[in-house]
Amino acid sequence: MQDLSSRQREQLLELAVDFQQTIAVRAIVQSNPNHKRLKTHKFLKIFR
């Protein structure tokens, strides 16, 4: 971790956050199958 520049560290953190959000969205979508298409579309637009 010490070899990384602060910019690289920021990018890694952003990736980690994106990954967590994607997992959270998947959990939400899976727990609401009746809204699956709507939610997936809405969240994917936000996270892309």
Query: Strand count, sense and closure of the main sheet?
Result: none
What count of domains describes the coordinates? 1
Order of helices and strands: HH
pLDDT < 50 runs, ≥5 residues: none
The assigned structural class equals mainly alpha
Q: How many strands?
A: 0
Total number of helices: 2
Shape annotation: elongated
**Approximately how much beta-strand content do the residues carry?**
under 5%
In helices, the fraction of residues equals over 70%
Mean pLDDT: 76
Protein model, in words:
By secondary structure, the protein is mostly helical. It has one domain (6-44). Helix content is 79%, strand content 0%. It has helices spanning 6-31, 36-47.
What key phrases describe this protein's structure?
2 helices, 48 residues, elongated, mainly alpha, single chain
In short:
With 48 residues, the chain is mostly helical. It is built from two helices and no strands.
List the helices and strands and how they pair.
Blueprint (H helix, E strand, L loop, with lengths): L5 H26 L4 H12 L1
